[in-house]
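Usage example:
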Amino acid sequence: MAQGKEATKKRTIQNKPASSIIRNAEGRRRVIITKVSPQVERGHFPAKTVVGEETVISADIFSDGHDVVTAAVLVKHEKERQWKEVSMKHLGNDRWQAKWYPEKLGLYQFKVQGWIDHFSTWQRGLEKKIMANQDVHVDLLIGAEMIKERAQEAAASVQDQLYEWGEMLQKSADNGMDMTLALSKKLANAVAQSTKSLVTVYPQVFSIIAERKKALFSTWYELFPRSTSSEPGRHGTFKDVERLLPRIARMGFDTLYFPPIHPIGEVKRKGKNNALVANSDDPGSPWAIGSKDGGHKSIHPQLGTLKDFRRLVNKAKAHGIDIALDIAFQCAPDHPYVKEHPEWFIWRPDGTVQYAENPPKKYEDILPLNFECEDWKNLWAELKSIIDYWIDQGIEIFRVDNPHTKAFPFWEWVIGEIKKSHPETIFLAEAFTRPRLMERLAKGGFTQSYTYFTWRNTKQELEAYMHELTRTNLKHYFCPNFWVNTPDILPPILTHGGENAHIQRLILAATMSSNYGVYGPVYEFVINKPHEAKEEYADNEKYEIKHWDWDKYSRVKEIIARINKIRRENRALQATANIVFVPTSNDQIICYGKADVERENIIITVVNLDPYHTQGAHVNLPLEKLGIEERPYRLQDMLSGSKYTWHEEWNYVELNPYMMPAHVFKIVR
Amino acid sequence: MAQGKEATKKRTIQNKPASSIIRNAEGRRRVIITKVSPQVERGHFPAKTVVGEETVISADIFSDGHDVVTAAVLVKHEKERQWKEVSMKHLGNDRWQAKWYPEKLGLYQFKVQGWIDHFSTWQRGLEKKIMANQDVHVDLLIGAEMIKERAQEAAASVQDQLYEWGEMLQKSADNGMDMTLALSKKLANAVAQSTKSLVTVYPQVFSIIAERKKALFSTWYELFPRSTSSEPGRHGTFKDVERLLPRIARMGFDTLYFPPIHPIGEVKRKGKNNALVANSDDPGSPWAIGSKDGGHKSIHPQLGTLKDFRRLVNKAKAHGIDIALDIAFQCAPDHPYVKEHPEWFIWRPDGTVQYAENPPKKYEDILPLNFECEDWKNLWAELKSIIDYWIDQGIEIFRVDNPHTKAFPFWEWVIGEIKKSHPETIFLAEAFTRPRLMERLAKGGFTQSYTYFTWRNTKQELEAYMHELTRTNLKHYFCPNFWVNTPDILPPILTHGGENAHIQRLILAATMSSNYGVYGPVYEFVINKPHEAKEEYADNEKYEIKHWDWDKYSRVKEIIARINKIRRENRALQATANIVFVPTSNDQIICYGKADVERENIIITVVNLDPYHTQGAHVNLPLEKLGIEERPYRLQDMLSGSKYTWHEEWNYVELNPYMMPAHVFKIVR
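Running the assembly step on the lines above writes:
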């Protein structure tokens, strides 16, 4: 991943002892560059952006004294040879910024450079002296000298011109002619063309990875293929899923994620509700991968054949849907690896294999791989080959199961390697764990990450969390994917808040985060009976095959379809870091705005967080921040269709959760 | 400065492309280390500490999965070969910390390492399983195996013991004997002695410079030696200064700083009040250095001889006072350098030398040195030789004039070089300029810095500024020195606030910052007539010789003596970063506490910021934060001597600026 040789070479200069400044003859470079942004882990990992999106590069750049400083960024794709120069603007307080738009997928490198522009310094001084009616005779001679010097190094095209101008300045010095030329921009530009001198180049090359648009804007639906059959009692197949594609497309999802589709272990298989002993007819957990029927590169026989699968992948594409597979690097006790590669597992003195455990908890149907084993290089290679295999079957998106229980260096390596040949690949990290671990996975290459959104319910919690995601350094590398539920998580609010809460949480996820996901059909059917001990669904689909009436009417389903249509049609909702929160007079009402870069598409979302009662509040739109100049201004609620005319920054809204718990306003021009 | 070869070598690993993880066989190292603190400019410069002071090193350290992580810091002085290991404590949320106390002056290097402690992981698991009444037969066998493995690599001293314990565990496995040994700390420790495996070492070595105590705690007095004569009209001499040493010592100052003591240029010399043309009897500005009598290594003839100077330096030392000299790297037009080294200056087409200017402002009595000149290496060497020369005369402290108008790389080099042979040297940066430049000078090696304190008057301004200095990364490298006034700056509050303001500002400076300074005797004599155009003294001493009645009584002088005595006697006031602000009910009353590391010395300062009116307020002491357990607790105001007994966190204070505008309480035990 990181920036390879050049960066390394440069980096070593950065760390020189001061005494070597002399040896390296750098003493005359007076411009200082620091606090370069974006950088992730001090440049060890690339920052993230999306092809075509505005990407900001900034730094603190300054020099001693009063001379005019100039700065630029040099950018190139790792596969290009030529650096492209993008000039930087001074934002004030010695902070400089350049805006740049990556054109293709993959890793870009950039470096920041600054230098003193002696000619502009001279020009600025001359102007001030003229204003102060000081004698500028000598100053003009100095300028003339400079121009001629520059002319010598200048491109042939401008050379003669420069000499001529030099002469003219000399003359005006002698006979005090007019200063128009001396102070002119054309002269400044012509000189600027010629060589810069004593340029400071920041001693590290940083990198930014440009990903596909979908990395930033995706809408996920999760289902268990085995629960898709039309007849009760029959094991669902890929063909059954094909039947559901139109439904999923109508709901507006562009990513369909399956739990593991591989053969399920029979040894130590779990029964319904995670029972230690399974009945003969229990299908087991799809995450207990591997049996006599094969491992991670095989398909569960009852789901269909590889041919069926490829057909499904193509049909889905035709509906604008990517199939996402689950990468769960662990093995059932009867996974072929256990016999073929015993060296990849931990063996206990009693001759048994070590199963997964977090004492006193045991997961006997799952064996962890030993990332500390002597044969780790072959283990890594084999695991990579699994991802390569499914890429060859047309898969571009992977949801990775519990990546934080596998060695971090492995992920950094495998994702880096895969992206070299397949930069379009998206990896979603399913890590619900401590902040530093989640951050590291994102730094290490995961495109998107599950988040704590699932447990953030109050206005204060939601605003604080969005601030962390969009206003701290996380915004450069941690791309959130807000899931309203998962087979592992039924948040209490969905249990006690019923349908209203399902709608509220859906609208929050879909409008706060440009990536979000739903595990269905339990979500749209508002099935929310909790497990007695855990924040999980009772009779969890992880351990049994369900039969659903997929065509049944569902209000939540209709709203999902509407909100996803709104997301597709409004660029403002296709980014996350652009969120701006709006003060409201009632903590039960949360309000935020989003605008696209051009400020042409502006969306204001207001949500009642209380599933039980109608709530009203005054909301205070920061019209300037949002780029709304008109007074009065008109809004259309894209959920209800109704139009409003607002006059002030403060406006009153009231939302009944039994009707519709939210407004999603678009500013109408 | 920075960390030289080793760091450089390590650094390059840090930046490897992920694919090289395999080549470097680092894949099995599962512990991740990041956010190492302290680091300045990513480790390019050392952080600062003081010999003997508690120095905290911290980092985020974690691993995948649930194993027990252990971490340590390795520290060594750059001149030592042996690394010393200091173990780190987990503070929570994956943050780890080590406390370390540097023993000698100079540059220390440190690196952070972490590893997984499989034995502790096993022990913790065993305990949980026993709690849960699970069968631990196999676990004991696993433990026994581990212990024997470790025994092989263990030191001979513990080897037999380990084998024996391994046997015992084996037995207890078979006959389910008691678990005391298995769970014992002694066993854990014995095993811990033996080799760590797969240790992650953070790929960069960082550095911390340990300076002398005085870098953190110093009390400065500035005077013009030429204004010290006892007879009006006579030019003051070093002998006259000797006469004043007892007075300065009584006032409690430990550092006596002189403006430049060198020959003053005669060409273009400035007259009184910065007049462009001087009268024949005008002495000129001491900062216009150099004449036929010599340059930066010469002494102004009327001040005395080098012998007189050395004598003064020694007498001062006898009074516990260090003489600090002014380093002003610029030349008068008749400075010897101009003839000897014309290549160090900028020459104009009319054959004149370029003088200092910031158009339209001109400083014709001063020529800047050209740090971009071809001969820069000799220029640097010569400037360094000036500092070396005065060090040879016994000077250890330098106040550097306008360092931000000389090239930054020069300072980084020259301070680094000087400190190699003279680590006790202190450099104070007189840079009143933009934040990024002031920060850079401090990073580049300046021991102390002038600050914006001089213009921070309100409670909100003072608290915000102290927060920036003591709660952001500045605390690792920017050591403030609070000056209440200087020959260049007479803050308006001293003009309109009179004596009361002089006392208030003095107490603020002396109690907020462990380094502070006073320019006298104008300060203690409350001479505060402002220049009509600038925030400067009228009839500025920079341009004329003053005659003072040094023995005259002054209330401010008495209070300076008292406050400096309080500083000497209370360790809490000998640091700056330990300040904790206390809420008060009145914005005119500011209150803050300081405690030493052991919490044995606790000082609470309350100051009335209003020079005109009595102000009262409730102050809310955070007794816990300050480590005050007793109820009631007793305080002694060390300014007035009176004692108080307080019962609660909230207490009322009232301060009359015409009596005494402050309390400096000590908690009495």
